[in-house]
Queue: 2 jobs
Job 1
Amino acid sequence: MKKTLAIALALVMSVAIFAACAPSPAPATPAPAAPAANAPAADTPATDAGDGEELYISIISKGFQHQFWQAVYAGARAAAEEYGVSIFFDGPESEADIDVQVNMLNQQLALNPDAIALAALSTDAVLSQLQQAYDSGIPVVGFDSGVPDAPAGQVLANASTDNDAAAALGAEGMFPAIQDQIAAATADSPVIIAVLSQDVTSESITGRTRGFAQRMLTLAGGVNDSVAITGGFGAINTGDADAAVRIEVIVGATPSIVDMTSAANGILTMPGLAGVFASNEGAANGILAAINAGASVPEDVRIVGFDAGTVQKAAVQAGIFMGAITQDPFHIGYYSVSLAVRAVRGESISDVDTGARWWDASNMNDPDIALLLYD
């Protein structure tokens, strides 16, 4: 049944993947988007830095290929309009393109912006740029995964989801549907709960991988005394490869749709598979691409996604995914600008948790959830 339903997504998938591969639009100061209903209003305009010129804020994201980043961009535009500032927003076409992102950052530093908002693909790759900004008095704030483990004082605050807590919601949403399978699992007849992640370096992806796996470990351990985390994310592995219940982390060779689809195909053929958690939009699209290409999904396997987008929304509506976790990408973008402006003003700023929600077919059209489910 799930395979049959998946065929209806084939056209949506092809359109979405084509859009993901399209070149990024030329960055500019765009027309503002309307802020979300609960977006904070700017208290006073921040039109200049004391020299009569409009503030210019450089925003460098981890990518532009997923619809998530388009929603972040919309939030940044809305804040730019409210605060009366000019922004640059761009990111590499692939989240594997570290050198491309570094070049973007270098180009923006050469323009001497008033502030920088950065979601770094690799902190190590931008250490010299962070030092240059610090030495030049250019405040840097993080957004989404931010700039993990940046040198003290060089990144002032971060606007992001608490990824561990968000992914734990995915485990809590999945667990009731597979609880009986977990309780009945034995070493001779094990149950697998797979986590598909696109890398082991991004702070957001590692946080979600850890958050889901560790919460599921706790929940499953309440009904079965032989549970372990295994697989490609060694930092959280518990080491028992013969456990009755294994939370298996699978990492794609690269974040590309081809490699994520290949990894998904491997997962969907695992004996004893009970559940799959896709830790970002790219992982979710890889699973759906595998299904649309003919991979079979047993009726009792539950799949939970992360983020939203046209393809994932259709999968939830069709019953292929039981649900997903949404961040608030609009406000991630909004607060990236808000924090940058306040930093330029010399105000004290601190991290902002932009939140996360569980969504499924029963609530995805509710106003407070629909607001967060970008296309």
Job 2
Amino acid sequence: MLTGLKNAFRIKDLRDKILFTIAMLVVYRIGAHVPVPGVPFQSMVDLFSGNSSVAQGAMALLNLFSGGALSYVSVFSLGIMPYITSSIILQMLQSVVPSLHELAREGEVGQTKITQYSRYLTLALAILNSIGYLFLFKSYGVSFAGLDTPEIIFDIMVVGTLTAGAMLIMWIGELITQRGIGNGMSLIIFANIMAGLPQAIASSLGGDVMGIVVTAVILVVIIAVIPLIVFLERGQRRIPVNYAKRVVGRRMMGGQSTYLPIKVNTAGVVPIIFASALLYFPAQLAVFFPGIGWVQAVAGALSSGWLNWILNVVLIVFFAYFYTSMVFNPDDTADNLKKQGGFIPGVRPGKATAAYIKNALNKITLPSAIFLALIAIVPSVVFSFTGNALIQSFGGTSVLIMVGVVLDTLSKIESQLKMFDYDGIFK
């Protein structure tokens, strides 16, 4: 692997992409520590520290997902969540709205239009979230007003700055996807998780022997789980495919045997990201009603506790099937095999082949979805009994996202290396 990474820096185009990705992530992390002008910095830090309801409630989860930016009311306080939420909404609408479905099938032109719709929706969600956070902070006694300036001016400045920060994050993510290496949205989430790791480890250690032992056990368990996650991410179901012999001009074509690879976890980490975004959405809505007790209670119940665990499992399994059906179409695969003269031994071409592939896809998606759900839920259950900060910040979901993002990024680097006749990273 080290040799492969060394070779990556020998190729100018690939080196530039890697350095550009790192530079964009550095810019993002700098922005996560730049506070909004006029905000009482220390008041916000105190609000999110200690045993306050904000530190322990639904807002703590939003702060975790933003990489700690929300606790500083930085320009990037909203994080990547508005963009993720808009992506979820548009992807679900593609299966309901015929016009969006047709756009998705038009290739690059249709995807460009859908991306534009996603940007507009992200802007609307960012404005709503910014206004909600402003109301929430004011409800806890944080004042943004100056002595000689009307408070409405500060309110507009805060909302405008937070909204601009969310749009800038979206732009950074798209730039990384287009000009860098890997998926920009996933890499930003990866950076947020890594940013909170040192503080979580320090909090878990606690300065005593018991804290050191507990932290060591947690880290050992995390290291032991990583190979299982890698095995799931790299696992494939290989369906044998034969090609009939045919004469093209004066040449004999076909006659060889190959296989159709189907990933065990076709959806990757998307189901967990989507499920987390939907479960955090009530917490985002609750900021509009800081003084209503039952709204805060519902948001807190959906953000943690047994109801959150059940909904997490259901949503992860649902999104695993939903996203898999979007990225892998058995009907199109069967049609392509038929046009190329390929067939699965013992299965008729056409509809029977599509049904066979769909059945195989469903069989391998269910266990992978259950595994994803367990990885996401078990650390949350353990955290509810122990209260260890390391489990909350670096639990199963975080590890799964990080491993998935690293493997996806390394796979893209490997494909670039093979284009230049270098050995890949995975051997």
